[in-house]
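Researcher: Last one for today. Full complex below.
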Amino acid sequence: MVIGYKPGTTADRRRPHFIRTPEEADQLVLDSACITNLSGYLVSEGLLSDEKAVAIFLKPDGIRSINILAAEAQLNIDQILILGFDINDNQVTALEGEKVEEFATLIESIKEQAPDALKNPLLEKIEGMTPKERFTFWQKEFSRCIKCYACRQACPMCYCRRCIVDCNQPQWVNTSSHTLGNFEWNIVRAFHLSGRCVGCGNCDRACPVNIPLRLINAKMAQEVLGSFDHFAGMSHTQEPVLASFKKDDSETFIL
Amino acid sequence: MTRILQSDNLDKCVARWREAGLTVIGPVKNESSSSYAAVEKAAEFDFSLIMPDRSIKELFFPQTEPMLQYTIKKQRIDTSDFTPPPEKRIIFGARPCDASGLAIDDPLFGWDYKDNFWFQRRDTTVIVTIACTKADDFCMCTSLKLVPDSTKGSDVLLRPLQNNKGWQVEELTDRGRDAFNEIADLLQDGSEPAAPTAVVAEKFNLDTCVAWLQKPENFESTFWREISMRCIGCASCTFLCPTCHCFDFQDEGDTYSGIRRKNWDSCSFALFTMHTSGHNPRATQSARWRQRIMHKFNYFPGKFNVNSCSGCGRCSRQCPVDMGITETLQAISTLQP
Amino acid sequence: MTETSQSVQQNIYKPAIMKIVARHDEAPGVKTMRVEFQNPTDLELFKQRYRTGMFGLYGVYGEGESTFCVASPETRNEYIEFTFRQSGRVTSALANADIGDVITFRGPYGNRFPIEQFYGKNLIFVSGGIALPPTRSVIWSCLDQREKFGKITIVYGARTVADLVYKHELEEWGKRDDIDLVLTVDPGGETPDWKHRIGFVPTVLEQAAPSPENCIAVICGPPIMIKFTLISLKKLGFDESNVYTTLENRMKCGVGKCGRCNVGSIYVCKEGPVFTAAEVSRMPQADL
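Model: Here's the assembly. Have a good evening.
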């Protein structure tokens, strides 16, 4: 199977496309509108269970997602053939390589640019706010949340068979979409994505009420990079930042 | 000669209705999202929207709503009711598809057991609909046998004037007439023609689709898996839909006091139908997407004689992977019946 | 206006308050409770409406509600008995409730067994494991007016002897000479002093070989048992329209609004839970 893109309802939309026959390849498109990170489909139930290879169109963020999924034992990278591409100034360029390891240098260079790339004027504005102002800002944004979980479903990293919000013994997170419940959900998700989010923007684009979710994840990525020199998805053997510890950690609660 | 409401007078109307104790609601856009929201001044309305991102449903069936409150003392429970706020409201500038959506759900909330959380709000809300003069690629009311100037579910229908300076007024119900009597002196007689209604191309033949859906053998067609392969199982289509009505109950509080809430729920979610035993009648995303389509165009009409879709197109417009009812029904209409 | 009539007219989701008056451990993790209405008006409404086969939503505030059948018959409608297995959040809370504690009840909802249509006929009840409760309400409805029915046969089985529910009633039924009681446990589930059959319910049913002549079958059990019991009944010559069963789907509202329980176009909460096998076979099987 090849996972790529095909034309969508309107000229600026592309749909995920699953190619199993040569005829299905006729619909394949690759252009600057192909921005969705498709890697999440690889962990959908049954897709890789036949142990056959799957080729998938991925931008660098998608390749980093594959690394994380492999590092977290969600998929076998030997099954994945990468059809790498990048979009710059609306131009699509092909990337050399088909196995994740071959993109290591590329990802290294992305990491070097990350401190600048993660900067965002709105993020800086929020950082300049007092805690109270910041709270008010997010309260307003989260007030629109309807808990459709499109952010979760669109995210390649949200692969849990049973999400914490769906656990009810005990009920860790309020399921209701009121102020408290919306805060709980969005903060829990931000923590669960810390050191794992590659900033593909799937959640941000999926949100039907346009909550700027990318800002939260970018902030967490900055923190993790600054504090632990951890950049998500460097390799398929990278240790997950929130699931590893060092014996010489300055925090006494670690050991 | 028809009665005309001039745009310039709208602010006075809003003030008048507010003085009469009505909460005035209409299409409002802030920087990033749009919805039907309460306004104080007419300038807050945005009539240029094809339709707000969020449907009118939430004003009658909120995403989360307290149903009752409990307190538990030693071997004694007290339950007290929550009732929807008794406020009177006027929604100015509803879209015909949104207003139709409310009419579609009325029989569902009313059969045998009357859900007063819904009806109390229905009974105290005046719906003033503005006919559509423009549509986008996702609008599909005509495919559902509705029209861009449908009166279904509305108390008053307004038709935008060709000169864009107001609306022709068509009062449809007593509730609508009462609300417009409040502003009778702000209306004029006029002969300014109405702007032509939007042209919404028919995207599929509904009868063909329904005939296919009704055939028992098509329930297990491989079509369902093919069409839903890219569905990611979020609930945005169902939550934005003006007619999707599924809900959950959730208790919040502790053993001694708390609130039972009615929350939106969705047939897209895997846990929606999961039995305690672990058995799930709709275990796959394709079974869940089939349920949504079947429910809207086969089961619901079988019960209530109306399709559970008013053609607003939000499901397709907002889908993260560009799926939706339109694509599915278009595909079905090309299949052998 | 009394509290109850208000709750009926205004808030259809408001439950009645029930006090637990008896509690019995049936099998590992399985309990039966008898509850009584605290408000006389609620009791009156229940008595007017309740017919054997209907279900209710039993709840614990702070945890939620769970759907079970009413296991007591319409002929004994001063109280409600229900049997459940402790498995989730609500059932755990219910299991922890003691005699004297109060719980909530909404219902009765759904349709009923058309018991008058069974008058003058032979009856065979087939059930397995924790699915005896819905059958039990029909059994008692019939036993309480025993003269109106012909021969009554009960085939009941469980995985092990310990898993049999209503053991004291099984003993009572076994002693009556107007009931033919056939008990069985799955091979390996027997105890050294087990005197009844060993084998799966469908096999034991075929051995019992009830005549389909003028006979109604009521079957309740796990889906796999239902499937094979239907095959056995067919072999014995039963017509699907003379075989009744109940469907148990996940429900939240119980009144046809929340969108969960439908199988194809059938809303189990309103058109069910009682169906004939003929009706079930017309439903889309993949949705069951």
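Chain B is about 30% helix and 25% strand. Chain B touches chain C through 55 residues (CB under 8 Å).
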